[in-house]
Structure formats: structure tokens, C-alpha cells
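Dear Dr. L.,

I hope this message finds you well. Following up on our conversation about the binding site, I have prepared a predicted three-dimensional model of the protein together with adenosine-5'-diphosphate. For your records, I am including the exact sequence and ligand specification that went into the calculation, followed by the C-alpha cells. Please feel free to forward this to your student if that is useful.
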Amino acid sequence: MNDENREVDFAALGNGRVTSAVLEGVHLRKYFPVRQFKLVGPRNVVHAVEDTSLALYPGRALALVGESGSGKTTVARILARLHEPTAGTILFHGEPEKSRSDLKDYRRHVQIVFQDPFSSLNAVHDVRYHLKRPLRIHGHAHTSAQEMEQVLALLNRVSLSPAEQFIQKYPHQLSGGQRQRVAIARALAARPEVLLADEPVSMLDVSIRLDMLNLLLRLKDEEQLALLFITHDIASARYFAEETLVMYAGQTVEGGPSEEVIQRPRHPYTQLLISAAPDPLRLGPDGKSTTTLPARGEIPSLINPPSGCRFHPWTHCFLYGNGGADLAVNAQDSTREKAREQKADDSSTAQDI
Ligand SMILES: Nc1ncnc2c1ncn2[C@@H]1O[C@H](COP(=O)(O)OP(=O)(O)O)[C@@H](O)[C@H]1O
Ligand SMILES: [Mg+2]
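The resulting structure of the complex is given below.
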């Protein structure tokens, strides 16, 4: 492990912590081969995640924010060890996670909750089955009495009560919110230290989203869970996560304490996300948003991504204006060079941000 690199990443996520990270992804990359019919020539790959680093701490939430296709789920799946990274390291309590043999043990500590509560539960099994299985697999319950006691306790922890009424229900008898609560209870059954929540509310009714987010926050505090909260809604990151990391087209473009990232975004993509997100605290006296949404460019292809920062083909790249002159995160020298070249080519359309 390269200590130098870790220092850079901690700086990006805000420092001065007393606790150490439970789980870290260091310089993660994931390329997916593309199915193609040509027999000759280079194989195309999707550059889904490009050099992303993050750290999760007990009792704290990190929001991973970005629009659809930016690579958020791929990062979560790498951290859950459902995908093998193309490059990069996962550190669990500072130790590299390499061998496949201790996967069961890893899963006990690192659990994932998926976006879609309708496909994450097995239609032919009842709630009790879903919860007792991880209890057995991870050796937390040895008798049926223990099992039943813990299943009921889990349901109560996710506020599905009276718990006795839920144990025999099948997924089709539950609402979306109730299913997601069962999925969270199933993750908790393993007694994890890390919970990776991949857009846990985006497929739920707007009216129940806040309850679900509050549940996750309560569990994070009560169980000192290290929480990765994936969302495309940057406004919710401010309320639910101590830190925020913004992803764009597979790259992390900005990270730090949520309040700072949202109140004083440096990268133009973060500014774009914020201006597009409804947040009552940012409304002006006339009730209108205080920021305007700059014109958008095209999202780059992930098969042949532009070199350097994937935002640079946009005329709103921070290097055109003065908004990001001191941006520290992922601003590599090569990126600056490329953007300057681009600016020289296309200065007539450049705008300040
Ligand atoms: N298994 C896969 N095979 C090929 N491409 C994939 C696979 N999973 C994701 N991708 C691609 O990787 C990119 C990032 O996807 P994803 O991580 O799901 O983004 P997000 O969760 O931010 O919407 C997308 O272009 C997506 O099509
Ligand atoms: Mg996703």
C-alpha cells in the first residue's frame, strides 16, 4: 500500500479524524469488455470507474453522488466484492482484501442494499426465510428459538411492527417501502460494520423516502455503521451524509465535508448538480432558485472517454473560468494541459461559470 496515495485521498475527504477507516477503496478502476462482432482490431471496453478512492468510517455516512451511468453502482459492487476491480485495492481495517477464500467472512462485515426492493427479495420465500438465512450462514443463531427471537428483533429494528405479522408474508404482500425495510433487515442480520446503500430510496414513493432515510441514519448511529449512501440527489447528501463525493462519467470530480461541497462547490459539474436539485434552503427571496443551470454538454462516451478529466470537453469546464482554479481533487496536470488546448481551439464558446 502506498502511503503517499492514501494521504491524498484523505485530504480530499476532509481530515482530522480520530477513528480509522473501516473500509477503503484505493485507486479503484473497473473496465467492462463490450460484446462486439468484429473479429479484428482492439477490444472495446467501458471505462465504468476510473481511479476512484474513498474511505468509510464507523458511525459516519459518505454520499456518493452522480447522475445515472456515472459509475456509482459499480463502485458499490466492487466494495461489496461482487465485481473484481480491474485495478486498485480494497482495504478492510487497513488490510488488503485479496483472497477469495474469506469472502463469506468479508460479506459478514460488508453488506449491500440494492436500489430495487422488488427484485432483491426472492418471490418464493417469506420474510422469515430471508432473515433467518443470513443468521444461519453467519452463525449468529444456533437454535430455532434463537432464530425466531432474532428475526423478530430485526423486524422491530427496521420498524416493521408488529413483527409477528410480517414474518410469514411473501414479497408480493409487501409495499415497496416494506420490502426495502426487509432488505435492510436482511443486511443487518449479518451484523455488518459497513452498509453500502445503493440509491435505497430512488424507487420508492416520494412520501416514504424521508422515513427510509431516517431509518438508515438511526441505524448508522445506533450500530455505528460505516454507511455508503449512493444517490443522484445531491440535496439529500447534505442532510444525510457527513461527507460527499461527486462522480462524473466514472471519475470522482470533487469530495469533502457535505456542507462545504454543497455550499461552496468548486467543480462545475457539482455546481450543475446543485443548481438542478431542488433545495428550499437555497431559494432566494422570490422563491426561485438562487443559482441558474448552465447549459449542458454531451456526456462523454465511456468506451472512448476523453483523456484527463471527462468534464473538459464541456465549455463549462472549470478551467475556462476562475471557479476552480484551486481545485485539488483529481486535477492532474495532464488534464489542465488538455483543457488549455481545448480552450485555445474553442475560445469563442467559452463562458465563465
Ligand atoms: N456488468 C456490466 N457490463 C458492462 N457495462 C456495465 C456493467 N455494469 C455497468 N456498466 C456500465 O458502466 C457504467 C456505469 O454504470 P453504473 O455503475 O451502473 O452507474 P450508476 O450506478 O452511476 O448509474 C455505465 O455506462 C454502464 O452501462
Ligand atoms: Mg446505479
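In brief: Residues 206-223 form the longest helix (18 residues).

With kind regards,
A. P.
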